[in-house]
């Protein structure tokens, strides 16, 4: 059984440069700002009510959340973020 030290989360935060976090935030922010005002407010309500856990939402609300996330184009967002990971991170498969 693997145990994580209490400082492992702190170590991970230090390893990821703040500039990359800022750029990731800008990518996500740009995508969210492209949504209509109605969609943005509904997305905020659903995320706030679920506290980040879709299982806390009703089936209808989960479906609505999926629809709104689909409008964000998560695949395109991932492609946009890929260069931020740096060389050597692309094309690797987990074993």
Would you give an account of this structure?
The protein has five helices and no strands. By secondary structure, it is mainly alpha-helical. It has a domain at 20-82. Helix content is 62%, strand content 0%.
What characteristics describe this protein?
95 residues, globular, mainly alpha
Brief sketch in words of this structure:
The protein has 95 residues and is mainly α. It has helices at 8-15, 18-33, 37-50, 59-71, 74-81.
Q: Main sheet?
A: none
Overall pLDDT score = 78
Order of SSEs, N→C? HHHHH
Oligomer: single chain
Distance between the termini: 19 Å
What's the number of extended β-strand segments? 0
Helix content range? 55-70%
Low-confidence stretches: none
Radius of gyration from CA coordinates: 17 Å
The coarse overall form would be globular
Strand content: under 5%
Task: Please work out how many helical segments DSSP would assign.
Answer: 5
The secondary-structure class comes to: mainly alpha
Please write out the topology.
Blueprint: H1 8-15, H2 18-33, H3 37-50, H4 59-71, H5 74-81
Helix pairs in contact: 3-4
């Amino acid at each position: 059984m693997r145990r994580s030290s209490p400082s492992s989360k702190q170590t991970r935060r230090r390893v990821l440069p703040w500039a990359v976090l800022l750029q990731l935030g800008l990518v996500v922010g740009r995508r969210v700002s492209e949504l209509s005002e109605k969609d943005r407010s509904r997305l905020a309500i659903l995320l706030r009510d679920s506290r980040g856990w879709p299982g806390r939402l009703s089936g209808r609300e989960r479906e609505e959340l999926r629809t709104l996330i689909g409008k964000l184009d998560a695949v395109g967002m991932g492609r946009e973020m890929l260069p931020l990971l740096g060389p050597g991170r692309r094309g690797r498969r987990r074993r």
